[in-house]
Amino acid sequence: MPVAGGGFEQCYNAQAVVDNETMLVLTPQVTQAVNDKQQVTPMLERVRALPAGLNQPKQLLADAGYFSAENVATCEQAGIEPLIAVQRDHHHPHWSERFSEPAALPPDPNPVQRMTHRLKTTAGRASYALRKQRVEPVFGIIKSVMGFRQFLTRGLDNVQGEWTLVCLAWNLKRMAALRPQ
């Protein structure tokens, strides 16, 4: 993958679809793509390929790295409500912005306008905020608590297997925490 300052390094981009209720990893994936924009469609296909009986997502929460008009349209076509940040937001918005509702949608809005409007509503902001509480901790715990900071194998297939094992270990750890006492 190209790196800042020029040149290339052997790097991988680890992806995971995380269930919002249980924080279990549904589908782990490793790519060599620098950009996350191309990962929404393949990850949705992997989720759809899961066995029957597993919850299918109703909503997609993703950061600005995944935003594109194509990804928003793909989610809507799949019957999934997209909540993808359009850009990075300021960390401390004015208090009036936190409690205001957006203006009405224009007539016949496109998918991006619908999603952007939804993100500005109180309900949309509350739903999107769950990404920081449900998805990001999975990656943080895998890195900090479980100590997984780098891949130990080489080659995309081997790294995919390693990431799958790491996510399996996370799922086992999480299922032990979720079991009834």
Q: What would you note in describing this structure?
A:
This protein is α+β, with helices and mostly antiparallel strands and 181 residues long. It has a domain at 13-138: Nucleotidyltransferase, domain 5. Helices cover 43% and strands 12% of the residues. The chain is built from 7 helices and 4 strands. The chain has a two-stranded antiparallel sheet. Strand 3 (59-62), helix 2 and strand 4 form a beta-alpha-beta unit. Helix 4 crosses helix 5 (122-134). It is globular. The model has no long low-confidence stretch (mean pLDDT 89).
Helix content: 40-55%
Radius of gyration: 18 Å
Write the CATH architecture name of the domain at 13-138. Answer: 2-Layer Sandwich
Structural class: alpha+beta
CATH class of the domain at 13-138: Alpha Beta
How many runs of DSSP E, i.e. beta strands? Answer: 4
In short:
The chain is α+β, with helices and mostly antiparallel strands and about 180 residues long. It has 7 helices and 4 strands. It has a domain at about 15-140: 2-Layer Sandwich (Nucleotidyltransferase, domain 5), CATH 3.30.420.
Which key features would you list for this structure?
two-stranded parallel ribbon; alpha+beta; 181 residues; two-stranded antiparallel ribbon; 7 helices
Element layout with pairings:
Elements: E1 13-18, E2 25-31, H1 40-48, E3 59-62, H2 69-77, E4 81-84, H3 95-98, H4 111-120, H5 122-134, H6 136-144, H7 156-178
Parallel strand pairs: 3-4
Antiparallel strand pairs: 1-2
